Predict the 3D structure of the following.
Amino acid sequence: MDASEAEALERRRRKRLHSEEIIMKLYEGEIGTTYIVYSVMVKDAITRRLEALGVNEQTPVTLMNKKGSGTVIIKVRGTRLALGKRISEGIEIREAVKHE
């Protein structure tokens, strides 16, 4: 998938959202906040590995720490994972609603 295809896909996804939902990249989140994974757009091999670790669409993740370089530490299903910038750029999240 090239950059223009990825941008077009992102625009289509954002149009489907309710106006009150905000979609952001994982590294843009706030430390200590729980989010819901909205989409995972990385290479297939990485996507499969993330799925094996429990990072799927609609999965709650808590942002534990982040560095200025884009590296993040998340907590997903009771396990802490460190993800580099390329991977954290490819994971889109939305804020978790209290009843989720």
Q: What stands out?
A: Residues 37 and 58 are 5 Å apart (CA to CA). The chain has one domain: 20-95. The mean pLDDT is 86.
